[in-house]
Amino acid sequence: MLLAKKTLFLSFLIVVISGIKLSSYPVEIKILHENNSNGVPTLLGDTVTVYGKVTVPTGIFNNYSTNVYIQDSTGGIAIYKNDQSIIFSENDSVEVTGEVSQYNGLTEIQIESATIISNGSPAIPLVINTDDVSHCFQSDYTEPLEGRLVKLNNVMYTGIWPQSGSAGVLTIDDGSGATKLYINKYTEIPGSTPPDGPFDIVGVISQFDNNLPFDYHYEVTPRYLSDLTYHNNRLAINNGPAVCLLSDSSVTIDWETTSPGNSIVTYGIGSNITDTIVIDSFSTRHTVKLPNLSPLTIYSYRVISSNTTNSISSELFSFKTNSHSLISFCFITLADSRATNQNSPLPDAFREILFRMEKFHPELILFGGDAIFGSDDSLRLLAQWDEWKMLFNRTAHRIPIYPVIGNHEANCYYQNYDGGKVFAQEFVLPQNGPSGFKELAYSFDYGNAHFSILDSDVYNDQSRINLFQRQWLETDLLSTDRTHKFSFQHEEAYPPTSGTGRSLENYPQDRDDYWHILYQNNVEADICGHIHLWNRDFFGRTLPDTVTEVKQIINGTCGAPIVHGYGGDFYHFVVWHINADSVHFDVYNEKGMLMDSLSYTVAGVKEVAENNHYKNVFSILTPFTKKELKVRWITKNTSRVIFYIYNVNGSLVKEKDLGIKKTGQYVTKINISKLSQGVYFLKMAKLARTAKFINIR
Questions:
Q1: 488, 518 Cβ separation under 8 angstroms
Q2: Where along the chain do the CATH 2.60.40.3080 domains lie?
Q3: How far apart are CA 202 and CA 189, in angstroms?
Q4: Listed residue (225, 170, 176) closest to 203, CA to CA
Q5: Cα 195 from Cα 155, distance rounded (Å)
């Protein structure tokens, strides 16, 4: 065997050194999966000879061509001929000569000649996990798993099991990260009884990626019904675990199981597992809070559920706690991943965008609504949520995801099923919103940023931020002292024209009142989706400064059908980088190409970090307009309150007399529109100390 390998190697050397291209030359199969950065084989167009064992015989994947797979000890390869003049049987050892080609990213050999040498024992599948499939393309541009016979154990699936004669694309996950299961319509699997719990799969790894770079959209394709082994009575994790409600001192871990079991989380700093929380009561939904954590600290955790049948344990995952002192971090926004109808799987573009997002290592993700298509069939609606959450599993294991409800979730598209309650049940979200909007409207801080989430699509009352939410929003924004403020809701406030469907412009007074609150409270951007495109310039509309000083960011499709005719017609996601009072964002399409970017600094007033021990008496809140200074202050007895502003020369440049005020906490706005750029000092009457601030023009 060693001698044979040397002979093959020497034959290849002769081709290279002599510079003469022979009619064909022998190669190990793994060489065929060496590519350039675009995923194109380096041997594309060469005629090669390979030796291997048949893993997918003639007639399994179609009845009109030779579409088979073979493998040697180094890898597997698809073999193709446009007829079935050569019959390959499973376990045949064969020699195949042909041209290296590529079909939708899948490397193939177009058969010119083939010899059946013998028939022997079956090939042993390589055991891998689901995440290995999605990340088949390696950093050195090789694809070592493509074409190989593999086995995946204890996977769960979401999607619609195909009927007889139909193909199916399902999502599967063994806890490591979701990938595709493709069920070929020519096999005996369509129409069979679907699994009702975890199952094992044997199949070959194929690829269907129709655009450069060919580095994604790998899928597992089983050959026979016997390639599926069901474990229907076994307890398994079918979604999660997910990191939720992340703060500087606690986190909540959420997961679901196929049948009731207890809830256990083991965790500790770094990889040192030191603590365990056990909830003995049985449930299929498991929500466990981990208290008394330290800020900006990496923790590892594992979830476990057990019942009388068996016990299931997740992999070891990690998360990093939040801190109010954090001033530099990254988050990602995206929206509208929904399918084209209630029976279709989530789009390939969405799957690919999730793959592209990984390299940016965000600390959190905000999703702007219309995650799913919706359905008035509650079981189908839940299945859509299962698929969406399963695709996010790999990310949600480590960082929090904050969703916004959209019209497709709230009104379930058909306007006859209230999906808001289902939405709230699917997630563990802050419960600090207005009455009646539990987990539909809420807010949270991350680092030096404040995020306010609104519901623009109340069941049968969509396309407005109603009065209850606006009143809550104003209080919410007044109560934060974070440098950056962002609002999120689903529908755009200022659409390109009046004829582009529903938007907040359908109710202009409600829209204007909402936007006025954002402007008055120095919200720097309102981020939405709904219209399936990218836009950040109000579509060129001429609008007053009181509108345009709040950026409208339409982050409108990561998979839903693109709207054409207004620019920005591409699938996308946005990577935001916060650094103190500066913001930079980049917009990428589903192939990872940079499409747009913007940098800005929070203009207006920035308090210098001095005299912080007096902030229990008065403190400067940090707007980014050039018009007003916002001050939170406390008086401990009834007295006259006066604020003074001095320049660096000690000259009084502004006085604000508020008159007699009772004991309490207040927020006051001081007009500074006439102050030039520079350093100033704010003083409250009867206090010796001052707060320094810089007015930035």
A1: no
A2: 604-696
A3: 13
A4: 225
A5: 10
Q: What is the dihedral of CA 475, 476, 479, 484, to 10 degrees?
A: -130
As a whole number of angstroms, the distance between CA 648 and CA 680 comes to 6
649's CB contacts (< 8 A; 6+ apart) are none
Q: Is 689 helix (H, G, I), strand (E, B) or coil?
A: coil
Q: Name the 3-class secondary structure at 381.
A: helix
Q: Where in the chain do CATH 2.60.40.10 domains reside? A: 237-320
Strand 551-555 relative to strand 573-579, pairing: unpaired
C-alpha dihedral sign at 211, 212, 215, 221: positive
- Residue whose structure tokens are 């980049």: 586
Residue 578 has pLDDT above 60, yes or no: yes
- Residue for token digits 């001698």? 3
Answer yes or no: are the C-beta atoms of 237 and 260 closer than 8 Å: no
Helix (H, G, I), strand (E, B) or coil at 665: strand
Report the alpha-carbon distance of residue 151 to residue 138 in Å, rounded. Answer: 20
Q: Which of 394, 405, 389, 408 is nearest to 339 (CA)?
A: 408
C-alpha 661/C-alpha 466 separation (Å) is 32
- Lookup: tokens for 130: 């689901």
672 phi, psi to nearest 5 deg:
-125, 20
Segment 179-202, tens digit of pLDDT = 999 999 999 999 999 999 999 999
Residue 494 and residue 542 in contact, taking contact as beta carbons nearer than 8 Å: no
* Helix then strand then coil, % of the chain, to nearest 5: 15, 40, 45
H helix or E strand, kind and range, residue 244: strand 237-244
> Residue 18: is its pLDDT beyond 70?
no
**H or E element in which residue 95 lies:** strand 92-103
Do residues 337 and 556 touch, judged by C-beta distance below 8 A? no
Question: Which pLDDT score is estimated for 445?
Answer: 98
Q: Is 291 exposed, middle or buried (0-12, 13-18, 19+ CB in 10 A)?
A: exposed
Which CATH architecture does the domain made up of 2-119 adopt? Beta Barrel (2.40)
Identity of the amino acid at 401: I
604-696 — its CATH code? 2.60.40.3080
Question: Given pLDDT bands bounded at 50, 70 and 90, which one contains residue 204?
Answer: very high
> pLDDT digit string (tens) for 421-474?
999 999 999 999 999 999 999 999 999 999 999 999 998 888 999 999 999 999
Q: Where in the chain is the domain with CATH 2.40.50.140?
A: 2-119
Is domain 237-320 annotated with CATH 2.60.120.260? no
Cis upstream peptide for 213 (omega within 30°): yes
Give the residue range(s) of CATH 3.60.21.10 domains in the chain. Answer: 328-601
Tokens representing 44?
Answer: 């594309």
The residue with tokens 């030359």 is 25
Antiparallel, parallel or unpaired: β 364-367 and 328-334: parallel
Question: Do residues 248 and 321 make contact, with C-beta atoms less than 8 angstroms apart?
Answer: yes
Query: How many angstroms separate the CA atoms of 675 and 673, rounded?
Result: 6
Q: For 383-392, how does the pLDDT look when each residue is reduced to its tens digit (9 = 90+)?
A: 999 999 999 9
Q: Which CATH class is domain 328-601?
A: alpha beta
Q: Let me know if 203 is exposed, middle or buried by CB neighbors in 10 A (0-12, 13-18, 19+).
A: buried
